[in-house]
Amino acid sequence: NHALCAEYLNIFISYVHPGPNHLEFLPLLRGAVWGLGRVAQKWPQKLRRRDAGVELLPLLGSPDAALRGLAAWALGQMGDARALENLVDLAADPAEIFLWQDGRLNTYTVAVLAQEARERISEQNVKQA
Question: Would you state the torsion angle of the CA atoms of residues 123, 73, 34, 66, taken in this order, to the nearest 10 degrees?
Protein backbone atom coordinates (compact mmCIF):
# COMPACT_ATOMS: atom_id res chain seq x y z
CA ASN A 1 0.00 0.00 0.00
CA HIS A 2 1.58 3.25 -1.19
CA ALA A 3 0.08 5.39 1.60
CA LEU A 4 1.28 3.03 4.34
CA CYS A 5 4.70 2.82 2.75
CA ALA A 6 5.01 6.61 2.65
CA GLU A 7 3.97 6.92 6.28
CA TYR A 8 5.90 4.06 7.85
CA LEU A 9 8.98 3.36 5.71
CA ASN A 10 11.32 5.55 7.76
CA ILE A 11 10.12 3.88 10.95
CA PHE A 12 10.66 0.45 9.40
CA ILE A 13 14.22 1.38 8.43
CA SER A 14 14.85 2.68 11.95
CA TYR A 15 14.04 -0.78 13.33
CA VAL A 16 17.11 -2.16 11.54
CA HIS A 17 19.38 0.85 12.21
CA PRO A 18 21.54 0.56 15.33
CA GLY A 19 19.97 3.21 17.51
CA PRO A 20 17.06 3.84 19.85
CA ASN A 21 14.46 2.13 17.63
CA HIS A 22 16.60 -0.93 16.80
CA LEU A 23 14.71 -4.17 17.35
CA GLU A 24 16.70 -6.38 19.68
CA PHE A 25 14.15 -9.20 19.71
CA LEU A 26 15.44 -11.39 16.90
CA PRO A 27 12.08 -12.58 15.47
CA LEU A 28 10.91 -8.96 15.16
CA LEU A 29 14.18 -7.88 13.56
CA ARG A 30 13.86 -10.70 11.03
CA GLY A 31 10.34 -9.50 10.28
CA ALA A 32 11.53 -5.94 9.73
CA VAL A 33 14.20 -7.12 7.28
CA TRP A 34 11.64 -9.27 5.46
CA GLY A 35 9.31 -6.26 5.32
CA LEU A 36 12.02 -4.10 3.77
CA GLY A 37 12.55 -6.80 1.16
CA ARG A 38 8.84 -6.81 0.40
CA VAL A 39 8.84 -3.02 -0.02
CA ALA A 40 11.87 -3.40 -2.30
CA GLN A 41 9.94 -5.80 -4.51
CA LYS A 42 7.45 -3.05 -5.29
CA TRP A 43 9.42 0.19 -4.78
CA PRO A 44 13.18 -0.47 -4.72
CA GLN A 45 13.87 3.18 -5.55
CA LYS A 46 12.24 4.30 -2.29
CA LEU A 47 14.69 2.19 -0.30
CA ARG A 48 17.64 3.28 -2.41
CA ARG A 49 16.69 6.95 -1.90
CA ARG A 50 16.70 6.39 1.87
CA ASP A 51 19.95 4.39 1.58
CA ALA A 52 18.40 1.44 3.41
CA GLY A 53 21.17 -0.78 2.06
CA VAL A 54 23.56 0.78 4.57
CA GLU A 55 21.40 -0.68 7.34
CA LEU A 56 21.13 -4.12 5.70
CA LEU A 57 24.76 -4.64 4.64
CA PRO A 58 26.07 -5.40 8.17
CA LEU A 59 23.40 -8.10 8.55
CA LEU A 60 25.10 -10.17 5.84
CA GLY A 61 27.68 -11.01 8.51
CA SER A 62 25.17 -11.78 11.24
CA PRO A 63 25.61 -14.95 13.31
CA ASP A 64 21.89 -15.53 12.69
CA ALA A 65 21.34 -17.41 9.43
CA ALA A 66 17.85 -15.99 8.94
CA LEU A 67 19.16 -12.43 9.12
CA ARG A 68 21.97 -13.24 6.66
CA GLY A 69 19.56 -14.79 4.20
CA LEU A 70 16.84 -12.17 4.54
CA ALA A 71 19.35 -9.34 4.21
CA ALA A 72 20.79 -10.94 1.06
CA TRP A 73 17.30 -11.33 -0.39
CA ALA A 74 16.29 -7.76 0.50
CA LEU A 75 19.49 -6.26 -0.90
CA GLY A 76 18.92 -8.22 -4.10
CA GLN A 77 15.39 -6.86 -4.35
CA MET A 78 16.79 -3.35 -3.88
CA GLY A 79 19.50 -3.88 -6.47
CA ASP A 80 22.17 -2.58 -4.10
CA ALA A 81 25.50 -3.22 -5.87
CA ARG A 82 27.46 -2.47 -2.69
CA ALA A 83 26.38 -5.91 -1.47
CA LEU A 84 28.02 -7.88 -4.30
CA GLU A 85 31.33 -8.53 -2.56
CA ASN A 86 29.66 -9.63 0.69
CA LEU A 87 27.23 -11.83 -1.23
CA VAL A 88 30.17 -13.74 -2.72
CA ASP A 89 31.23 -14.55 0.86
CA LEU A 90 27.84 -16.21 1.42
CA ALA A 91 28.11 -18.43 -1.68
CA ALA A 92 28.92 -21.51 0.41
CA ASP A 93 26.60 -20.82 3.37
CA PRO A 94 24.55 -24.02 3.79
CA ALA A 95 22.23 -22.69 6.50
CA GLU A 96 18.55 -23.13 5.67
CA ILE A 97 15.96 -20.46 6.35
CA PHE A 98 12.27 -19.94 5.68
CA LEU A 99 11.07 -17.16 3.41
CA TRP A 100 7.44 -16.29 2.76
CA GLN A 101 7.07 -15.69 -0.98
CA ASP A 102 4.25 -16.01 -3.45
CA GLY A 103 1.76 -17.02 -0.76
CA ARG A 104 3.92 -19.90 0.46
CA LEU A 105 6.53 -20.55 3.12
CA ASN A 106 9.59 -21.78 1.23
CA THR A 107 12.92 -23.16 2.44
CA TYR A 108 16.13 -21.76 0.97
CA THR A 109 19.80 -21.94 1.82
CA VAL A 110 21.55 -18.66 2.49
CA ALA A 111 23.85 -19.56 -0.43
CA VAL A 112 20.91 -19.78 -2.85
CA LEU A 113 19.47 -16.46 -1.67
CA ALA A 114 22.89 -14.83 -1.99
CA GLN A 115 23.34 -16.20 -5.52
CA GLU A 116 19.87 -15.04 -6.57
CA ALA A 117 20.61 -11.59 -5.10
CA ARG A 118 23.91 -11.37 -7.00
CA GLU A 119 22.19 -12.32 -10.25
CA ARG A 120 19.39 -9.82 -9.69
CA ILE A 121 21.83 -7.00 -8.86
CA SER A 122 24.00 -7.82 -11.87
CA GLU A 123 20.95 -7.84 -14.19
CA GLN A 124 19.79 -4.49 -12.85
CA ASN A 125 23.26 -2.98 -13.31
CA VAL A 126 23.35 -4.18 -16.94
CA LYS A 127 19.93 -2.61 -17.60
CA GLN A 128 21.04 0.70 -16.09
CA ALA A 129 24.28 0.81 -18.12
Answer: 180
d(CA 98, CA 5): 24
Task: Measure Cα distances from 5 to 40, 42, 56 in Å.
Answer: 11, 10, 18
Average pLDDT over every residue of 33-52: 94
How far apart, in whole angstroms, are the C-alpha atoms of residue 125 and residue 72? 17
How many CA atoms lie less than 13 Å away from 3 in the CB half-sphere?
A: 0
pLDDT of residue 90: 96
d(CA 91, CA 101) in angstroms, rounded, equals 21
How many angstroms separate the CA atoms of 108 and 6, rounded? 31
At residue 124, what is the residue type?
Q
Beta strands (DSSP E) in 1-129 are 96-101, 104-109
What does the pLDDT look like over 69-118, one tens digit per residue?
999 999 999 999 999 999 999 999 999 999 998 899 999 999 999 999 99
Asked if 85 and 109 count as a contact pair (C-beta separation under 8 A), the reply is: no
Question: How many CA atoms lie within 13 Å of 88's alpha carbon, on the beta-carbon side?
Answer: 5
